[in-house]
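Reading group handout, session on sequence-to-structure problems. Before we discuss, look at one worked example. The prompt was deliberately terse, the way you'd type it at a terminal:

> structure BFD domain protein (2Fe-2S)-binding domain protein

The input record follows.
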Amino acid sequence: MTTDKDNPDNEVLCHCSGTKRGQIRALFLEGRDLEGISRWTGALTGCGGCEWDIEWYLKELKEEGAGAAPSSAAEPPAGDSPEAPAEES
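And the output record:
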C-alpha cells in the first residue's frame, strides 16, 4: 500500500516554510525561477538550510526538461500590452 508519506512530492524541502517538493515542481512548471518560488512559498527566507536542496532540485528539473519555459514566459501575451501613447503634432 502506498501512503501519502511515500509520495516524493510530499517531501518537505524547506522546513521553515513547510514547502514541499511537489509545490516547487508545480511552480517551476508555471515558469517561476528560484526567486519567484521563494517569494510564492516563503522558502529560502528562514534559516537558509534548504538552499542547496532546492537549487539542486531545480537543476534536476531543468536537466529533465520538465516545463522548460520559453524565455518569454514572463512577458504578457501579444495584444495584452498597453499601446504606446499617440504622438502629439
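Points for discussion. First: Strands lie at 12-14, 19-20. Second: Residues 69-85 have pLDDT under 50 and may be disordered.
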